């Protein structure tokens, strides 16, 4: 069984519609796909309605969270699986984050246009459509306008968190998000804990504390992790009884990642399902 528990659609910053995403997953030989758009459950219905026979769709979302690090806060992405999408706390927080993303995105574009970069807020909003506005949408506008050649290039330069146009957003506290997902019947897994800035704040001691606070898993196998990081994370997960997942973090043509590039062991998926409430069971056959 081939299981990829982390993929994005046009409901957030992917380039495949939810229908295209599940079709691509089936074509890639996947048996299980996690639909985990940023701060939204907006792709679930279409993914469910168009799911090819034999493909299981695990409903999820990637929450924008952060942890304190000295006088600053460090962004940490948290995957939530099989939670109740109508839970009032999650609905309210996703609405807040959507507005936070919009204001941050429009502010970045305003800074760029003030410097003569030929993109516009209207262009970015058109690219985003109904999705929460994210930096990848600005990256696509930069490519569309001929400023840069790729979204990856945009993140390495104009959209870098160290660049002159960057603006932060007010993310959910990670510990609060873990509790929120649990209260809604879901299962929390930290995304790419060694892939980006997270490694600074997600020390072994911090992960131990998060496990005690209700964190359920770590995304061990991810394209951003090297062999040593995977071994470290697997050991930490086993030490603290955490679920170990593996995922591609597929975004369509925004990033050079393939569906099924990294996968989750079936026994680990069963642990995810067992940890969630029966009312939020996965769609389609498992096993």
From TrEMBL:
Gene3D superfamilies: 1.10.150.650, Metal-dependent hydrolases. It comes from the Bacteria. InterPro entries: PHP_dom (IPR004013), PHP_domain (IPR052018), Pol/His_phosphatase_N (IPR003141), Pol/histidinol_Pase-like (IPR016195). Residues 3-67 form the Polymerase/histidinol phosphatase N-terminal domain. GO terms for molecular function: 5'-3' DNA exonuclease activity; 5'-3' RNA exonuclease activity. It holds the Pfam family PHP. This is Phosphatase. It comes from Nakamurella endophytica.
């Amino acid at each position: 069984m081939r299981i990829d528990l982390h993929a994005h659609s046009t409901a957030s910053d992917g380039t495949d519609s939810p229908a295209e995403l599940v079709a691509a997953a089936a074509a890639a030989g996947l048996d299980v796909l996690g639909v985990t758009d940023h701060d939204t459950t907006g792709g679930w219905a279409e993914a469910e309605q168009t799911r090819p026979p034999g493909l299981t769709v695990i409903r999820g979302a990637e929450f924008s969270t952060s942890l304190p690090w000295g006088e600053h806060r460090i962004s940490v992405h948290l995957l939530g699986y099989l939670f109740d999408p109508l839970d009032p706390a999650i609905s309210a927080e996703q609405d807040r984050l959507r507005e936070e993303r919009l204001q941050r995105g429009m502010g970045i574009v305003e800074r760029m246009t003030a410097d003569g970069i030929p993109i516009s807020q209207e262009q970015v909003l058109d690219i985003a459509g109904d999705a929460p506005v994210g930096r990848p949408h600005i990256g696509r506008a930069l490519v569309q306008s001929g400023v840069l050649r790729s979204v990856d290039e945009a993140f390495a330069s104009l959209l870098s968190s160290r660049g002159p146009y960057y603006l932060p957003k007010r993310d959910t506290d990670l510990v609060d998000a873990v509790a929120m997902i649990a209260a809604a019947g879901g299962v929390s897994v930290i995304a790419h804990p060694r892939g980006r800035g997270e490694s600074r704040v997600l020390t072994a001691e911090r992960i131990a504390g998060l496990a005690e606070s209700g964190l359920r898993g770590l995304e061990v196998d991810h394209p951003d992790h090297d062999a040593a990081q995977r071994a470290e994370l697997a050991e930490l997960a086993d030490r603290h009884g955490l679920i170990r997942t593996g995922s591609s973090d597929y975004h369509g043509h925004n990033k050079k990642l393939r569906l099924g590039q990294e996968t989750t062991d079936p026994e680990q998926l069963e642990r995810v399902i067992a940890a969630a409430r029966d009312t939020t069971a996965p769609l389609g056959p498992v096993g």
